[in-house]
Amino acid sequence: MGKEFRIKDFLIRIKDQIIIEDDTTYKRVTVSGNHKGVKLRDEVIGALIGTKKQFVIKAKDFILSKIDARNGAFGIIPDELDGAIITGNFWTYSVDTDLIDTEWFFYFTHSYNFIQICIESSTGSTHRKYLDEKVFLNHKIFVPEIKEQKQMVKRYKSSSKISKKLSLEISSQKEYLFQLKQSILQEAIQGKLTEEWRTARQAQESPLEEASELLKRIKAEKAQLVKEKKIRKEKALPPISDEEIPFDLPEGWVWTKLGDICTKTGSGSTPRGGKSAYIEAGIPFIRSQNVYDGGLRLSGVAYIPMATHKKMKGTKVQAEDLLLNITGGSIGRCCIVPKDFKTGNINQHVAIIRTLIKSNGYFIHKVVCSPYFQNMIYEAQTGAGREGLPKNKMDNILIALPPLEEQQEIVKKVEVLMEHCEELEKEVAESEANAQMLMQAVLKEAFEGEIKKEMV
């Protein structure tokens, strides 16, 4: 048997406040959404903690984020985080173990019913909803007797084995697809995808312009643009040494540096006034959150006035430019600006890579997205947090340059293969959604099914 209880009948709020001492090291905690649980955020000395009033947590207590509880940000505090600290954005509760088995409650919080309670208890604007503690604690749930709770946990664990196995398989498939896409890009930039194409092309009568000739042509055209004052003269990049070369090239290819095949590289800036300079409509102002490997995403893009855009004439974005994120967590993401794009500008977190030959940019995009180039970005970063790619180091990254005709063939092959990968990713995503539905069905059967029987 069992009966209905309000949540406040078995969760008791704990507020164990402390004042942070500068010479003491503290464990700080984060609570991840989507039921990913309670984790160690970092260990830091008190002098580096700005908010001096914090709260101590205890193992086996229940913790939630008042901001993200509706998104599954809650859990049971593990033993290794006993004594860690939290800010007032997290709330902890001791669990009355005379009424509630802690493990039962942990699994119950993963159920649709509990998520609904958190959603219904959250108030505020769309982007800043907070849990209303009074509303949350006054929600009623049916609680079986402790003995039945333990039996339900046992049934759930037994029933969830298939679901967990399926989840592991899906994780393996996602990792395999990621590695497959990386392999495709790496083989593309080393000429391995076009080995058969080169053999067939050599049998044709019309000669193929080698990459060395293409490079000479680019150099001559750049010199002419400098002479006509259409582009700035850049300082010559140092020659490539044998020690720098990372892999062998196919016949007809040549090593060059990114800066040598571009008419412009470099980042933008933030207009004076920061966000206050943005307007409702105007010239698109592209930031790192708009740049993805799959393309430019203009939903949520900021806008600046035409007058500001004209002042920032050095970083005007053109159709078929490459945009590369050069700072922060999204460093290395790169997109090609669409052909029908009119104009725009960029901030300091995004760099323009403008190849002299527009069609060359599509191949360079594949190079930038490859494991080779991403590793070069990592090695070239500067700053205390290793999170910035300066122009001079970006310009000096080596590029394995194929003949222009082969570049176009590589882009075609990569795009066909990536389309196949995307189809597989859709199937995996569908399987993942089904696995989540299965997990909820298992929870429903193990918890709600038994509860309904008890209430009849």
Automatic annotation (TrEMBL):
<feature type="coiled-coil region">
    <location>
        <begin position="404"/>
        <end position="441"/>
    </location>
</feature>
<comment type="similarity">
    <text>Belongs to the type-I restriction system S methylase family.</text>
</comment>
<dbReference type="InterPro" id="IPR044946">
    <property type="entry name" value="Restrct_endonuc_typeI_TRD_sf"/>
</dbReference>
<dbReference type="InterPro" id="IPR000055">
    <property type="entry name" value="Restrct_endonuc_typeI_TRD"/>
</dbReference>
<dbReference type="GO" id="GO:0003677">
    <property type="term" value="F:DNA binding"/>
</dbReference>
<keyword id="KW-0680">Restriction system</keyword>
<keyword id="KW-0238">DNA-binding</keyword>
<dbReference type="Pfam" id="PF01420">
    <property type="entry name" value="Methylase_S"/>
</dbReference>
<feature type="domain" description="Type I restriction modification DNA specificity">
    <location>
        <begin position="250"/>
        <end position="427"/>
    </location>
</feature>
<keyword id="KW-0175">Coiled coil</keyword>
<dbReference type="GO" id="GO:0009307">
    <property type="term" value="P:DNA restriction-modification system"/>
</dbReference>
<dbReference type="InterPro" id="IPR051212">
    <property type="entry name" value="Type-I_RE_S_subunit"/>
</dbReference>
<feature type="domain" description="Type I restriction modification DNA specificity">
    <location>
        <begin position="19"/>
        <end position="166"/>
    </location>
</feature>
<feature type="coiled-coil region">
    <location>
        <begin position="208"/>
        <end position="235"/>
    </location>
</feature>
<protein>
    <recommendedName>
        <fullName>Type I restriction modification DNA specificity domain-containing protein</fullName>
    </recommendedName>
</protein>
